[in-house]
Amino acid sequence: MAQMPDGELAPRSGLLPASAADGLSQRTLHAYLHIPFCRVRCGYCDYNTYTSTELRGVTQNSFLDNLLTEISFSKNVLQQLSPQNREFSTVFFGGGTPTQLAAEQLALVLETLRNEFGIEENAEITTEANPDTVDERYLTTLAEAGFTRVSIGMQSSVASVLKTLDRTHNPENVAKAVSAAKAAGLQVSVDLIYGTPGESLDDWRESLATAIDLEPNHISAYSLIVEPGTKLARQVRSGQLSAPSDDDHADKYEIAEQMISAAGFDWYEVCNWSKDESTMSQHNLAYWRSNDWWGYGPGAHSHIGGTRWWNVKHPSAYAERLVAGESPALARENLDESEKATERVLLELRLREGMSIELLKSINPLVAKPISQFIADGMVNAADAIRGQLTLTLKGRLLADALVRDLLG
To answer: Is the N-terminal amide bond of 96 cis, ω within 30° of 0?
Structure first.
């Protein structure tokens, strides 16, 4: 069955509406590279990833050629939107497992971005990595090419939890990967997941303690979501595994905040902690602050000036479009001012800096009532609210999505 779009069909030319150029100079530009390869698919994962048996003739080398073609294609599209030269402020390789590609291949993609667009001086350039796929030689090659940061998928240090998640990496290799990244001069983030069926509070404490002992620059901790269509969802539906509960997630989030902050990290987004401002994920902050980004690769999403689009998902369909000289975009949507404002609330409220109450009033004139209730309930910082900024307390972070619904009315 052909993949159907959720929005309007994207033009095969890839051309963007003139409205996407409005306020261009006020927004930064960022690149996301989706590398869709995985050695095996984890049971909880619903990302657009493919194992070797699912690629329908696409190889890593041919995929790389297609990715470079899309970079050239994007340059043409953006030049037609505006002659203003825009360098990338950050670059992020995600997946999938980007480090399934050779280090030299990732370096080639980065060099192509640099040649086509330019990359700002001291830009943050990150790749995600499975700890089993990198060593010091690999990471040194990336550092020499200009990479500055690696985000290592640790998820847990407990073998039984990793088994439930279908993670195949050797837990001992996380420490080796972190050590190799530091030796290469790269900043290090470790990613954790909590709420796996069968994970006890002590299991979670052990994973946090292990991550903290690695002395990374940054820690991300995400609650496990049972996504429809995944192996994990089928296991939960059949009763083989128990669904994680909201109370379990809340308890584990509070433990994470206590342990990570005690180790000298500060939260700056609900799921992210850093040692200082210089080690925050600048790429992710660009998303949360509604800047512009081009997402390269199968299924990648992009956003330029309120126009959002997403590519065809399968690497073979992606290749067919680019070989034909066409945009790989499947569909797109143009956000109106109300939709843009709603997204700002959804994203900015999750940040430590919060958002302007005056802005909230312009979106919802009746917002004073829920804000007063949030203050009374200890969900937001009262002193900050008096100064005109709405910022979440720990209690508020636990219920951030519900607060957003109330603010939007």
So the answer is: yes
Q: Is 367 helix (H, G, I), strand (E, B) or coil?
A: coil
CATH code at 8-288: 3.20.20.70
Three-state secondary structure call for residue 89: strand
**Joined tokens for residue 244:** 């994680």
Please classify residue 250 by burial: count the beta carbons closer than 10 Å to its beta carbon, then call 0-12 exposed, 13-18 middle and 19+ buried. middle
Least confident among 235-239, 307-311, 394-398: 235-239
The 8-class DSSP code of residue 250 comes to H
- CA triple 307-310-312, angle to 5 deg: 150
Record the tokens describing residue 33, joined without a space: 């590279």
pTM, 2 dp: 0.95
Residue pair 170/131 in contact by the 8 Å Cβ criterion = yes
Torsion of CA 197, 202, 208, 209, to 10 degrees: -150
Show Cβ contacts of residue 325 under 8 Å, excluding neighbours closer than 6 positions.
none
d(CA 381, CA 66): 49
- Residue 21 Cα distances to 148, 226, 306, 307, 353, angstroms: 30, 38, 9, 10, 27
Beta carbons of 72 and 116 less than 8 angstroms apart:
yes
* Spatial contact of 214 and 174, defined as CB atoms under 8 Å apart: yes
DSSP of 343-366, one letter per residue?
HHHHHHTTBTT-EEHHHHHHH-TT
Name every residue whose Cβ is closer than 8 Å to that of residue 143 and which is 6 or more positions away in sequence: 184, 185, 186
User: Where does CATH 3.20.20.70 sit in the chain?
Assistant: 8-288
Q: Are the C-beta atoms of residues 134 and 180 closer than 8 Å to each other?
A: yes
pLDDT digits 0-9 by tens, 21-67? 999 999 999 999 999 998 777 777 777 888 777 888 888 899 999 99
